[in-house]
Amino acid sequence: MCPRRCARCAGHSLLWLAVLCLVANVLLYFPNGETRYAAQGHLSRFVWFFSGLAGGGALMFLPAFVFIGLEEDDCCGCCGHENCGKRCAVGPPAPVVEMVPGRCPGPLWPHFHSFSSPQMLSSVLAALIGIAGSGYCVIVAALGLAEGPLCLNSLGQWNYTFANTDGQYLLDTSTWSQCVEPKHVVEWNVSLFSILLALGGIEFILCLIQIINGMIGGICGYCCSRRQRYDC
User: What's the whole-model pTM score?
Assistant: First the structure.
């Protein structure tokens, strides 16, 4: 049994996740709430990859609106639903066949039934775009966490203090004090990149589920149509 608004629910979730990604990425430009570091170019290189603005943000609006636009009563990918596959695998209308007692009229559709409709195809393609965007967000956020922030160290030099630690600095918070300026920049970057990583991961999973959901909807609708076609 399938929830009736599976795709629409995923669309609304992606919409809010995309907004959160946008906010998290914007905050990365203002360490400790200050704007001068962005103007001076003293930000981590991965902040400028726009992982939350483009990947987990703007690109996710397309699949979100496509999923939301699916018919409310259509449950693509859910066998057993009364509208199973009607939108994901739509075939030609049944011709009028004269019924002869004691004789099976045979297949109502003499030609091959359409496996997929534009709605199912658009849903899967939009989900693929969402996977690309969310995957990009996850990869950049992970690289940003591994490299660490660009900061002013105790020697008065701007560099990536934790770049050679292979991300081990994340487990040793006592080393975070090596970054003198911006204040609390390590906490700032770790928190926001972690949020982007988590949000991108959730977006990726939702889009992957919708791809599977749409493909099953096409198969289910095709099977249902064949069952009705040969029912005499």
Answer: 0.77
